Sequence to fold (416 residues):
Amino acid sequence: MATGLAQAENSVTQAVTVALDLSSLVLQSGGSTVMADTTLRNVLKGYGEAGISTVFRQDFIAASSVTNGQAWTVLRRLGPAGLHLIRASEAATLSERLAKGEVDTVEFASQFARIKQLASPFNPWITTLAAACAAAAFSRSTGGDWGGMGVVLAAAAAGQFLRSLLQKRAFSRWAITFICALISGFIAVGGLRLGLSRVAGATLIASVIYMVPGIPLINGFIDIASGKHLFVGVQRLFDASVVFFIMTVAAAIANSALQRT
Amino acid sequence: MDLTAILVNSLWSAVFATGMAVVFSTPSWALVPSFCCGFIARLVRDLLMGWGASQNLATFLAAALVLFIAASFVRRPGVSPIVMLAGIIPLGAAGALFRAIVGFLEVSSLKGEGLSAPVALISNLSILFTTTCAIAVGAWTGYFIGQSVRRDQLV
Fold:
């Protein structure tokens, strides 16, 4: 009897642990809280567990329930959020397949391990080039000229390259944003001072656009609109606003520093 | 309404969306759909605004259309429509963002005159807020409609 109860406890604990792991992977890869919550529910459904209460915050996820008359809570700390849409997509889809019974728990575990190890499909050089092209295209779409486009291309490429180096060295996200925005801003303002472009606004803003927290902002509003994740949605909006503010301050510093020279 | 300018801007927006898709680690096969979604998103929004729709309504409809397309047609087995999220990035309040940053720079250097700058800054931040809200609600709506059409499970 005691062994049976212990097995039941182990089963619930394993299901909740795996569900929290997969759900946190979705959140840390750029998924909304709504998506992470559905992923968690799908995994629990796949393991045949119900009656688990969850709380999502920006820095942790908690799951709690009562087993054999004892209340328990499992917490999963969340690291810094990144953007890895393949990983978020595959994690969410894997949970769906588990809930539908298309994979068993053994295959689920191996697939989960594979998803955790997924690398970006693009090497850092391609990502740097893409960020530079995106920023340059943005400058044109907001009224920038061809000279400004070239300046933005160089500024964003340098910023994104530095960003990837700093990310590897585990610098804080806010420090990375500030340093990269400052470097990109200096290059953009330098190009403007050399007369390479006459459209100052579009050139300066486009040079840092590759770091704009667009997806966190959208996710924040999705969380709020869901009605279930109001607090974490507000946290995400505040966090995105801070990143936006840091970028603005860095661009302003670059602008004013070069104006004085 | 200058159709040529709208098409050119839509093309640049599509390049912007594709570049950001790479930065977001979108799968390689989703880059062309991201390009198309970025183009359609900006084109639809600009056309609707050209026909007199408000910016928020136009953004909402464009985001809903793009996510509807992504959820209905682009979905493959083992892929969530989240990989198409870069397609709606060009709908972001780029203009308001631009003006807000410029406004921020102006406010920091005010010397008694130009008291309208803080008002403009607040105005642009509010546009940024409402536009992003319109994108999120539009994307969610389009996704729900797309999933309903497919009668598939929501993620």
The two ends of chain A are 81 Å apart (CA to CA). The first strand of chain A starts at residue 53 and ends at 56. DSSP finds ten helices and three strands in chain A.
